[in-house]
Write a structure and sequence with these properties.
There is one protein chain. The chain starts with 12 loop residues before the first strand and ends with a strand. The protein has about 475 residues and is an alpha/beta fold. The strands form 6 sheets. The chain has a 7-stranded mixed β-sheet, with helices on both faces. Strands 7-6-5-8-9-21 form a 6-stranded mixed β-sheet, with helices on both faces. The chain has a 3-stranded antiparallel β-sheet with strand order 3-4-22. α2 packs antiparallel against α6. The structure holds glyceraldehyde-3-phosphate.
């Protein structure tokens, strides 16, 4: 979708495969194809976004609030008619279970409605004059300019729209490149974008980052880089911008969220939360629990019961009932997880669950590793997949010291009964990360809560409330006359 036109593509295309196989002997399934775009089309999209931003009075950036909201409302109405199609593609493309794919779709719709309401409130609050020393100022929030938006494969809809929608509603224009996996699920929505927004306001392009995103950044015309994904890509793209000082960043990056289990923790609840926290969607969530610290006094019982529960999780295709573990969309992920396991085993860890590490063509059964120590790769690297490292501790200073030392700082889960006596510990933890979850696993939602991180985990804050601020700037007109 470039400059309001759904281009018919006669050039090279790229096939999109699902790692889910329907044949007796394993074979990835061909789902469709996408245009293989290069620099020229990317720059056309950029030009369209710049023109739409610069077009002047009454157009997108200066459009009346009610009119801009009407465009979003039209979009969400059209989007709702595509639920089944999008949900099916989510299952096939990224292997997300039926229930979770439906949740992702519905959560995205709610996010759009909530954003519209928040925007109305922001607009009401900002339409005020203030008088200071005889100068009247009409301060409001205005757009930042042209946004390059890139979303992740684990939430190709919800995470991406958490960038796209606030950027749009604040009056920015956007070039959006869907993730490599979870790319086709955007196709049913292209027409909705085309019909709802003025031309050039949303441009959707396909292709490799190097072919399309790099040339866009090199022009220096991008005002905001909005990306949820890995730091490597974020840094590589920033580096292409000729004047980095001009570039605003809205980034959601890696995390290595730990669970800390204290000796008095309620083990039934803790195990339930740790199972969901570490292995929902096979651990492919930035908010997943990626390291479990358990107090030595309860370590034996926790390990035994947690390992049994992991083995009881059902693996299967996303649409099958009761399935908790599903095929991994990245073909090279099982090999990477295997590398982490081998490294840990060679340094003294053991797989403590019976099925841990069993592989099929598109899956590796979650391996629970214990004892994990600092010299192992799985201790530091963000595994983003089905392997769970367990570390035991006797002194709370041990996990605290590791967290202070970590490159990441998104969230932590703390399990213990006497939460009131934990107040000083909670104060310490909240200064190491941005969200402390008491007796519950880490998560992004509800989406009205601030979603951010310290160190290499995030730049800027997302939430229904914060995202509108992240994609805008306070501007004003000052005058001596009221
Ligand atoms: O991958 C990171 C997502 O923001 C996680 O969101 O906690 O709702 O699964 P979630």
């Amino acid at each position: 979708l470039v400059d309001g036109e759904l281009k018919t593509w006669s050039g090279k295309t790229t096939d999109v495969f699902s790692t889910i196989s329907t044949t007796e002997t394993y074979q990835p399934t061909l789902l469709g194809s996408i245009p293989y775009m290069e620099k020229e089309t990317a720059l056309e999209a950029l030009k369209a976004a710049c023109d739409a931003y610069d077009r002047g009075q009454g157009n997108w950036p200066t459009m009346r609030v009610e009119k801009r909201i009407a465009c979003l409302e039209k979009f969400v109405d059209l989007m709702k008619t595509k639920r089944d199609e999008v949900v099916k593609l989510l299952m096939w493309e990224i292997g997300k279970s039926l229930e979770d794919s439906q949740k992702e779709f519905d959560r995205t719709i709610d996010y759009i409605y909530d954003t519209i309401e928040e925007y109305k409130e922001l607009d009401r609050d900002s339409a005020k004059f203030t008088n200071q020393d005889g100068i009247y100022a009409h301060i409001k929030r205005g757009p930042l300019g042209v946004v390059l938006c890139l979303g992740p494969y684990n939430y190709p809809l919800n995470e991406t729209f958490a960038l796209l929608i606030p950027a749009l509603i604040m009056g920015n224009t956007v070039i959006f490149k869907p993730a490599k996996f979870g790319v086709l699920c955007i196709s049913p929505l292209l027409e909705a974008f085309q019909k709802s927004f003025p031309k050039g306001v949303v441009n959707i392009i396909y292709g490799r980052g190097r072919q399309v995103a790099t040339p866009i950044m090199q022009t220096g015309r991008i005002d905001v880089l909005a990306l949820i994904g890995n730091s490597k890509s974020a840094i590589a793209l920033q580096d292409q911008h000729p004047n980095k000082n001009r570039l605003r960043l809205v980034l959601g990056l890696e995390a290595k969220n730990p669970a800390i289990i204290l000796p008095d923790a309620d083990l039934d609840l803790t195990i339930d939360e740790c199972i969901a926290g570490s292995l929902s969607f096979n651990g492919q969530r930035c908010t997943a629990l990626k390291l479990i610290y358990v107090h030595e006094n309860i370590r034996e019982e926790f390990n035994k019961r947690y390992a049994e529960r992991v083995d009881a999780l059902k693996f299967g295709n996303p649409w099958e009932e009761g399935v908790k573990l599903t095929p991994l969309p990245e073909p090279d992920k099982p090999a990477y997880i295997q590398e982490l396991i081998d490294d840990a085993l060679s340094k003294g860890a053991k797989i403590i669950n019976k099925k841990g590490g069993e592989t099929t063509d598109n899956f590796i059964f979650p391996a629970v590793l214990y004892p994990v120590t600092k010299n192992m790769r799985v201790y530091k690297e963000e595994q983003f997949g089905p392997v769970v490292p367990i570390v035991s501790f006797t002194d709370i200073q041990e996990p605290l010291h590791d967290m202070a030392d970590s490159n990441y700082g998104q969230q932590v889960s703390l399990f213990g009964k006497n939460v009131h006596s934990l107040a000083p510990l909670i104060d310490t933890l909240v200064n190491l990360v941005c969200r402390v979850n008491l007796n519950s696993s880490c998560q992004r939602g509800p989406d009205v809560f601030p979603f951010t991180g310290r160190k290499d985990s995030a730049v800027s804050t997302l939430s229904v409330h914060d995202a509108l601020r992240s994609f805008s700037i306070r501007t004003f007109v000052a005058s001596k006359d009221n």
